Amino acid sequence: QVQLVESGGELVQPGGPLRLSCAASGRTISIYAMGWFRQAPGKERELLASIRRSGDTYYADSVKDRFSISRDIAMNNVYLQMSSLKTEDTAVYYCATQRVGCGNYDSWGQGAQVTVSS
């Protein structure tokens, strides 16, 4: 099993930057990919970005010009650098991991609240 803890969520002004971190522990050797999701009130959870152990990345169209995902080589930590934040980016942000041989993200963090407001 993999345990995940997000940090860095806070209140930020529109247009500002914010960096989220996610620390993984446990069987991190089994991690194939790490992803960042978010869920706003009344909306479905959406995948924002993911990164594989190989370094390949994916971004949702809604964030690809503003967000950047990175990780350390050991896949123990994943980061989401966000810039030009908008009020509609307000949500709970989750990191999750996908194990080798699994098609789904099956380990989740507790979430970090990001609020974009003046």
Ends distance: 40 Å
Largest sheet: 7 strands, mixed
Class by helix and strand content? Answer: mainly beta
Q: What's the number of extended β-strand segments?
A: 11
Radius of gyration: 13 Å
Topology order in helix (H) and strand (E) letters: EEEEEEEEEEE
Residues in helix, %: under 10%
Mean pLDDT: 96
How much of the sequence lies in strands comes to over 45%
The helix count comes to: 0
Written overview of the protein:
- There is one protein chain.
- By secondary structure, the protein is mostly beta strands.
- It is built from no helices and eleven strands.
- Strands 2, 4, 5, 6, 9, 10 and 11 form a seven-stranded mixed sheet that branches.
- A hairpin with a 5-residue loop joins β9 (about 90-100) and β10.
- The chain is globular, with a radius of gyration of 13 Å.
- It starts with a strand and ends with a strand.
Q: What are the main properties of this structure?
A:
four-stranded antiparallel β-sheet, single chain, 11 strands, 118 residues, 0% helix, mainly beta
